[in-house]
């Protein structure tokens, strides 16, 4: 091999290695320059200028479709609760008023009933100069009767019906006409009763012991009282004969 060939080959190889070395040194140089840019106190410093902060834009347009906050929701619940409580109180007040009205109505009805009963148990009448009392037992307070034989019989029938005493208008009328001719002050002063000192008296000619024994409660104790006389005689006839309708003669 010639010297020139070796020389050229060596030069060629040297040049190639030199190129690699130069490239490496250049790279190291750049790294060294970058490293030397870092301060020795290890703090980080950027050489570039700081990026300015982005501007914030504020819109004047109202925000739509935003749901209520928790405070708004709680306020709504509070209002709803108050409405429910108010309704319950109103219902309770209405129920109490209804109960009080019912109690008042019941008391009023009771007072009216008592007044009617009191009115039906008493009443002053005057018959042929004699004054007596007769209760209108068993009839409405507003019902009135004529102060005549017809009225006496009809009132007596109402009392008899209320007391469960049998008898009819015809049965009472026929016996009254036969016994006293319809005179409430009639008195028998000639028969056996009169001889024994207990004369028969009134419309149906009842002797005092019989009148007292068969007196109908609520009527007058005056034997000449037409209503008291009729009802006592009818009560006696029902006990003795079954009904005044069965009596066709003196009894």
From TrEMBL:
Q: Could you tell me which residues belong to the region Disordered? A: 102-142
Start-end of Basic and acidic residues biased regions: 102-128
Could you list the residue ranges that cross the membrane?
20-38
Q: Which residues form the Transglycosylase SLT domain?
A: 176-248
Write down the Pfam families for this protein, in alphabetical order: SLT
User: May I ask which residue range the UniProt record assigns to the signal sequence?
Assistant: none
Q: Which UniProt keywords apply?
A: Membrane, Transmembrane, Transmembrane helix
Entry protein name: Transglycosylase SLT domain-containing protein
Per the UniProt entry, what species is this protein from, by scientific name? Answer: Streptomyces incanus
